[in-house]
């Protein structure tokens, strides 16, 4: 018997990744997808899938609000970029999730439970997991793979994150490291009281701002503290938000 599935994911690369991985499961038939919460509610209520791969943090309304608005209880596998501390709540409550970046092994585990009909989430469990979102659990330390070791960098040491081509780098005063996430994913995982996105390619530590230089044609650059005094451009699309937060 085939299982009709809908994927709700706002990151295009993650959506394509899930679709690609699901091709190896003949039992799973993808009947639709959505990139925001409101569209997801409409498609789910109309097509009534058996299974939803549901991102938690979505534009318009989040994944839990989607669940509140759909008219029945399908099987759900959450996709999330939350760190290991928040994920303990998922494990304790027996909820299936796929931690981004999604691997074939993680998907195998979830699909096996789906095929064995072992996914059954009641309203009490939904409430417990919703509390995680309300508490806004943010990353406070960052794991960096370096040859045969894993470096742990506290958020206090981070100056900024930058995206170059398809890669993201965590930058401290002394060095920069490859970091396995997209800028968009990082923006969701970082505390907005500590980090600020100023450009499609930059997220900076607010405490590391030394000054803001007025550039030409009404543009601005942020100069960060440190020996190199790194200077990063504030893009026009992010300038209103930066002005509001930094009050200039």
**Assembly state here?**
single chain
Largest sheet: 5 strands, parallel
CATH topology of the largest domain: Rossmann fold
Low-confidence stretches: none
- Estimate the helix proportion, in percent: 25-40%
Biggest sheet, strands in spatial order?
2-1-3-4-5
CATH superfamily of the largest domain: Response regulator
The CATH class label of the largest domain is Alpha Beta
Morphology call: elongated
Query: What is the ordering of alpha helices and beta strands?
Result: EHEHEHEHEHHEEEEEHEEEEEH
Task: Tell me what the structure shows.
The chain is an alpha/beta fold. It folds into two domains: 3-135, Rossmann fold (3-Layer(aba) Sandwich), CATH 3.40.50; 141-246, Beta Barrel (OB fold (Dihydrolipoamide Acetyltransferase, E2P)), CATH 2.40.50. The chain has eight helices and 15 strands. The protein has helices at residues 12-22, 37-47, 63-69, 84-92, 104-115, 123-135, 183-189, 239-246, and strands spanning 3-8, 28-34, 51-55, 75-80, 97-99, 141-146, 149-154, 160-164, 167-171, 176-179, 195-199, 202-205, 209-214, 220-224, 231-234. The strands form four sheets. The chain has a five-stranded parallel β-sheet with strand order 2-1-3-4-5, with helices on both faces. Strands 10-9-8-12-11 form a five-stranded antiparallel β-sheet. The longest helix is centred in the middle third of the chain and has 13 residues, at 123-135. The termini are far apart. The mean pLDDT is 85.
């Amino acid at each position: 018997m085939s299982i009709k599935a809908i994927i709700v994911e706002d990151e295009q690369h993650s959506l394509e990744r899930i679709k690609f991985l699901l091709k190896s499961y003949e039992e799973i038939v993808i009947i639709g997808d959505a990139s925001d919460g409101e569209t997801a509610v409409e498609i789910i209520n109309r097509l009534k899938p058996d299974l939803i791969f549901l991102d938690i943090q979505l534009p318009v309304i989040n994944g839990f609000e989607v669940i509140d608005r759909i008219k029945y209880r399908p099987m759900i596998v959450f996709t999330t970029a939350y760190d290991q501390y928040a994920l303990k709540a998922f494990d304790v409550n027996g909820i299936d999730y796929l931690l981004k970046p999604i691997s074939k092994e993680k998907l195998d585990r979830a699909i096996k439970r789906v095929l064995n009909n072992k996914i059954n989430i009641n309203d009490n469990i939904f409430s417990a997991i919703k509390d995680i979102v309300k508490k806004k659990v943010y990353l406070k330390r960052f794991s960096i793979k370096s040859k045969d070791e894993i470096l742990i960098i506290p958020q206090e040491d981070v100056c900024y994150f930058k995206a170059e081509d398809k890669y993201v780098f965590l930058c401290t005063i002394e060095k920069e490291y490859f970091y396995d996430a997209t800028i968009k994913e990082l923006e969701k995982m970082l505390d907005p009281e500590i980090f600020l996105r100023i450009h499609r390619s930059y997220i900076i530590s607010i405490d590391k701002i030394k000054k803001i230089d007025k550039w030409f044609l009404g543009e601005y650059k942020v100069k960060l503290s440190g020996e190199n005094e790194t200077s990063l451009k504030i893009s026009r699309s992010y300038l209103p938000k930066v002005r509001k937060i930094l009050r200039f």
